[in-house]
Amino acid sequence: MNTIPTITKNLLIINVLMFLGTIVAQSYGIDLARYLGLHFFLAADFNAAQLMTYMFMHAGFTHLFFNMFAVWMFGRILEQVWGPKRFLFYYLMCGIGAGISQEIVQYIHYEMVLSAYDSVNTGIAILPMKEYLNLMTTVGASGSVYAILLAFGMLFPNQQMFIFPLPVPIKAKYFVIGYFLIELYEGFANNAGDNVAHFAHLGGMVFGFILIMYWRKKNRGNGYYYN
């Protein structure tokens, strides 16, 4: 842990502690996701602070592990290149941007489909719309993680990467493009039972792209952002 840069290390620690806190709270009958997860903004349980807190919550160990593995693998490199302040700003802003993107997608779905009904049949029970909206909750650092992947691909586009199960290495830029296209397809496919916030992932990447292009333009020629 001593070799991991400060911000990356603290992000790992905070996310793990929040996950453990969620487990402990559940043993006392408290669902932290109800308070810290990002609710749909028309739901009664929505709070603007959730745009920040939701990215430190995770739905399960696998969700946490793969997100934190990506933060450790790619985040520490970005922090070494950008410095701690810029990396932390990027991580948080892309997480917030991912949350905003998810809210927009949920609102479109609400206006096009849900607003015409007073209740929703979940397959288990028929819930009043007010209760159903409170179930539309997003958790996880995936928006920030996808933004980190994008940044790595833009900073080191020709870096060779071994990606299981591919038998040959691929360049980082193709790795990022592939992830983007997969998320775009899955988002529009809207498969039944798919509870992954694909458009939040895409939103994190879009916000990350905007930030990087802004920094490139602002710092062009002074050697601060790129050599």
From TrEMBL:
The chain crosses the membrane at residues 12-31, 51-75, 87-108, 132-155, 162-182, 197-215. InterPro entries: Peptidase_S54_rhomboid_dom, Rhomboid-like_sf. GO terms for cellular component: membrane. Keywords: Hydrolase, Membrane, Protease, Transmembrane, Transmembrane helix. The keyword Protease applies. Residues 49-215 form the Peptidase S54 rhomboid domain. SUPFAM superfamilies: Rhomboid-like (SSF144091). It is found in: Membrane. The keyword Signal does not apply. Its main location: membrane. It comes from the Bacteria. One of its GO terms (biological process) is proteolysis. This is Rhomboid family intramembrane serine protease.
